[in-house]
Design a protein that fits this description.
Adenine glycosylase active on G-A mispairs. MutY also corrects error-prone DNA synthesis past GO lesions which are due to the oxidatively damaged form of guanine: 7,8-dihydro-8-oxoguanine (8-oxo-dGTP). The protein is α+β, with helices and mostly antiparallel strands and 347 residues long. Helix content is 42%, strand content 13%. The radius of gyration is 24 Å and the shape is elongated.
Length: 347
């Protein structure tokens, strides 16, 4: 039996029931694929349902303010996905009259879409035989064929794409692509794969040679950068604070944050108040307390943020114009969102 026949047979018996599998609308497939990058299905599902209810068409998403889109995305992380999604929605709505591109070559031109997403949309919506290669697919193929080429190397990316393309069922490429992704997620799992009940057990190299735990191979990650953040959580007598939009191309672009002092290491109260930015910001007397007694470590893909939230109470402050009652309306990083859930300012 051919690889794709055995795989699709497994899929038809075991596939997950998911809302984006009930449609061929490329807008909905696109949304789901972007959301599920770096995100588990269990977490992404609620966001998908909320997004499609709020923005039922690409025109609705295109008309929204970026701040609204980022607020809806809050908690999913990797916010460039949301900004690119919004940018491409405006392009489709305004430049393409709402018509989603229908070929891999055109789809991949959209901002924020790479090979994997373009292949998924082209195959599922337009029946184009373009194979997807994501973490699940790398795992299945590396184990089945016993491939030790690093999946995050240039050679590995090319090799696995070629193999994936050679295996695809050209008559039903969308079904095949969803089948291999589900098989990797549910059966050929990273930890404790279900090898004893695997339909490929008699032909899987990793199973035969006991290499399951060793595959797939990844090159070592780049060095993690440590950063030290001190957020100044301001509260005036008339219950106002400061939030500002984060600019530039770094983390959290377009999200809002409290005034921030970044330092070379964890600092204490005396070091905080002697910082030039602090003295410039607060000309009047302040009362300062540290909210979290131990720094919060927020881990991003290439950096770890060691964070302290300093509660700074002052009688008045010219730049403090945002009411604490409205603070939940602003899109903020999950690090600050978690803080706001715990912190209850006294009126």
């Amino acid at each position: 039996m051919k690889f794709y026949n055995k795989l699709i047979s497994w899929y038809l018996q075991n596939k997950r029931t998911l809302p984006w599998r009930e449609t061929k609308n490329p807008y909905f497939i696109w949304l789901s694929e972007i959301m599920l990058q770096q995100t588990r299905v269990a977490q992404g599902l609620a966001y998908y349902l909320k997004f499609t209810e709020t923005f039922p068409t690409v025109f609705d998403l295109a008309k929204a303010d970026e701040s609204t889109v980022l607020k809806m995305w809050q908690g999913l992380g990797y916010y460039s996905r949301a900004r690119n999604l919004h940018y491409s929605a405006k392009h489709i709505a305004n430049e393409l009259n709402g018509e989603f591109p229908s070929t891999y070559k055109e789809i991949i031109k959209l901002k924020g879409i790479g090979d994997y997403t373009a292949s998924a949309i082209a195959s599922i919506c337009f029946n184009e035989p373009t194979a997807v290669v994501d973490g699940n697919v790398y795992r299945v193929l590396s184990r089945y064929f016993g491939i030790s080429t690093a999946i995050n190397s240039t050679a590995g990316i090319k090799e696995f794409k070629t193999i994936a393309q050679s295996l695809i069922d050209k008559k039903q490429p969308g079904t095949y692509n969803q089948a291999i992704m589900d098989f990797g997620a549910l059966h050929c799992k990273p930890q404790n794969p279900l090898c004893d009940s695997c339909p490929f057990a008699n032909s899987c190299v990793a199973f035969e040679k006991k290499l399951t735990k060793a595959l797939p191979v990844k090159e070592k990650k780049i060095k993690i950068r440590k950063r030290y953040f001190n957020f100044l959580v301001i509260k005036t007598n008339n219950n106002k604070t400061i939030l500002s939009e984060r600019k530039g191309k770094g983390i959290w672009q377009g999200l809002y944050e409290f005034p921030l002092i970044e330092t070379e290491q964890i600092i204490n109260k005396n070091e905080l108040i002697s910082n030039q930015y602090f003295t410039d910001l607060f000309p009047n007397e302040t009362t300062i307390s540290l909210f979290n007694k131990k720094e919060i470590v927020h881990k991003l893909s290439h950096q770890h943020l060691y964070t302290q939230f300093w509660i700074v109470e002052t009688k008045s402050l010219e730049n403090a114009t945002i009411s604490w009652e409205s603070i939940q309306d602003f899109p903020v990083p999950i690090l600050i969102s978690n803080f706001l859930e715990e912190f209850q300012p006294k009126n």
